[in-house]
Write a structure and sequence with these properties.
The protein has one domain (2-41). Helix content is 88%, strand content 0%. It has three helices and no strands.
Length: 42
């Protein structure tokens, strides 16, 4: 029974990390940090 709970938590944690990565990669702040002000010019 405990194994099922741990397995569920691992899946939840992995999906959470994935969504955080997606948010970071698609945010304007992340882009500006890596590419500078060139994105706003174009």
């Amino acid at each position: 029974m405990i194994n099922i709970i741990v397995f569920g938590l691992l899946i939840l944690l992995e999906s959470l990390c994935h969504s955080i990565k997606m948010l970071l990669f698609h945010s304007d702040i992340f882009s500006e940090l890596f590419y500078g002000d060139n994105i706003t010019d174009h």
